[in-house]
Amino acid sequence: MPVITCIDDLKTLYRRRVPRMFYDYCETGSWSEQTFRENTSDFDDLHFRQRVAVDMTNRTTASRMIGQDVAMPVALAPVGLTGMQHADGEIRAARAAERFGVPFTLSTLSICSIEDVAEYTSKPFWFQVYTLKDDDFMERLMDRARKAGCSAIVITLDLQVQGQRHKDLKNGLSAPPKLTPSSIANMATKVSWGLGMLGTKRRTFGNVVGHAKGVTDPASLSSWTAEAFDHALDWARVKELMEMWGGKVILKGIMDPEDAKRAADLGADAIVVSNHGGRQLDGALSSIRALPGIIEAVGDRVEVLFDSGIRSGQDILKALALGAKGVMIGRSWVYGLGAMGEAGVTKSLDILHKELDTTMALCGHRDINQVDRDILLVPEDFTGRWA
Ligand code: GLV
């Protein structure tokens, strides 16, 4: 077993162990991938102020997100098809998150169903919903999440239409994977992945197939997503969905201060500054550049979470210093899952936690809740002077 020291090491292992089609699904942005790249590279423009001779004993990263205690202010973001990255992937990731003490978010487009994840966990998780036209299906989905004890829903606002990811089209992405000569040749080299998949019955979209009208055959799912997403989504519909749920709501995909104000006006419990990991609007600003403007607009009115581009504890600390109350990670935990299953997700969380804790200490802080903008050196034009 190689020595794993950082998230990038997990990515290397992940790439070796998981079929190309699913690695590509995770490791892609839309079109030219400009935003996908800048989400990570823009963190490099922020620097820390190193402080010395400060008492570093008794440090804590414990905090709260939407009123829930967390071991560190990090939640696992919803990621589609995770059960294709590793057998029973969503169950495994949810268990690792629960053990670590951070929230797990289940995607509507997961392989393991809401009920599967509830059966194998003992604490409430968050559930992500897209905005779909079919009210019946939305109500049933929310009802299932309620019965499973989910403590919040995360409504994805930035995927009414899908940003094209070239690799998925070229690979013919599907779940279960289509058997073509090249997919068979590639899967044949992924032995532990294949054995895991043979050992589970969960190989298609568990929240959808058999639950959404007309979707009994997984092959019809791509047409279902193209037809079912609500292209007419507006703020009135967001309000309706919030009322339909009636509990805590996190609105994800906010990149503009005006949208942040609308979300705060609706009384969302939190918003997530996110460009969907660079998978939707190619050419949008990186999330980290968008964050300060949104904090300025609504930071005192709604909890602001951050997502897109986090690959280290240093990145987490930078987002918190700019005013985020917590962050979501997506690829960083999927790499761990694909590399080593449940233990890999735990490894991702351990790595991020250690980096976060040590970096906080070297910036002269002992309590993550006390960290503020003062620890950062931010270039004057970081958020841009855009005409
Ligand atoms: C789904 O939300 C995706 O980005 O693939």
Automatic annotation (TrEMBL):
<keyword id="KW-0285">Flavoprotein</keyword>
<dbReference type="InterPro" id="IPR000262">
    <property type="entry name" value="FMN-dep_DH"/>
</dbReference>
<feature type="binding site">
    <location>
        <position position="130"/>
    </location>
    <ligand>
        <name>FMN</name>
    </ligand>
</feature>
<dbReference type="GO" id="GO:0010181">
    <property type="term" value="F:FMN binding"/>
</dbReference>
<dbReference type="GO" id="GO:0005886">
    <property type="term" value="C:plasma membrane"/>
</dbReference>
<keyword id="KW-0288">FMN</keyword>
<feature type="binding site">
    <location>
        <position position="276"/>
    </location>
    <ligand>
        <name>glyoxylate</name>
    </ligand>
</feature>
<dbReference type="InterPro" id="IPR012133">
    <property type="entry name" value="Alpha-hydoxy_acid_DH_FMN"/>
</dbReference>
<feature type="binding site">
    <location>
        <position position="252"/>
    </location>
    <ligand>
        <name>FMN</name>
    </ligand>
</feature>
<feature type="active site" description="Proton acceptor">
    <location>
        <position position="276"/>
    </location>
</feature>
<dbReference type="InterPro" id="IPR008259">
    <property type="entry name" value="FMN_hydac_DH_AS"/>
</dbReference>
<feature type="binding site">
    <location>
        <position position="279"/>
    </location>
    <ligand>
        <name>glyoxylate</name>
    </ligand>
</feature>
<feature type="binding site">
    <location>
        <position position="165"/>
    </location>
    <ligand>
        <name>glyoxylate</name>
    </ligand>
</feature>
<feature type="binding site">
    <location>
        <begin position="330"/>
        <end position="331"/>
    </location>
    <ligand>
        <name>FMN</name>
    </ligand>
</feature>
<feature type="domain" description="FMN hydroxy acid dehydrogenase">
    <location>
        <begin position="1"/>
        <end position="381"/>
    </location>
</feature>
<feature type="binding site">
    <location>
        <position position="128"/>
    </location>
    <ligand>
        <name>FMN</name>
    </ligand>
</feature>
<dbReference type="InterPro" id="IPR037396">
    <property type="entry name" value="FMN_HAD"/>
</dbReference>
<dbReference type="InterPro" id="IPR013785">
    <property type="entry name" value="Aldolase_TIM"/>
</dbReference>
<feature type="binding site">
    <location>
        <begin position="78"/>
        <end position="80"/>
    </location>
    <ligand>
        <name>FMN</name>
    </ligand>
</feature>
<feature type="binding site">
    <location>
        <position position="156"/>
    </location>
    <ligand>
        <name>FMN</name>
    </ligand>
</feature>
<feature type="binding site">
    <location>
        <position position="274"/>
    </location>
    <ligand>
        <name>FMN</name>
    </ligand>
</feature>
<keyword id="KW-0560">Oxidoreductase</keyword>
<feature type="binding site">
    <location>
        <position position="107"/>
    </location>
    <ligand>
        <name>FMN</name>
    </ligand>
</feature>
<feature type="binding site">
    <location>
        <position position="25"/>
    </location>
    <ligand>
        <name>glyoxylate</name>
    </ligand>
</feature>
<protein>
    <submittedName>
        <fullName>L-lactate dehydrogenase</fullName>
    </submittedName>
</protein>
<feature type="binding site">
    <location>
        <begin position="307"/>
        <end position="311"/>
    </location>
    <ligand>
        <name>FMN</name>
    </ligand>
</feature>
<comment type="similarity">
    <text>Belongs to the FMN-dependent alpha-hydroxy acid dehydrogenase family.</text>
</comment>
<dbReference type="Pfam" id="PF01070">
    <property type="entry name" value="FMN_dh"/>
</dbReference>
<dbReference type="GO" id="GO:0004459">
    <property type="term" value="F:L-lactate dehydrogenase (NAD+) activity"/>
</dbReference>
<dbReference type="GO" id="GO:0009060">
    <property type="term" value="P:aerobic respiration"/>
</dbReference>
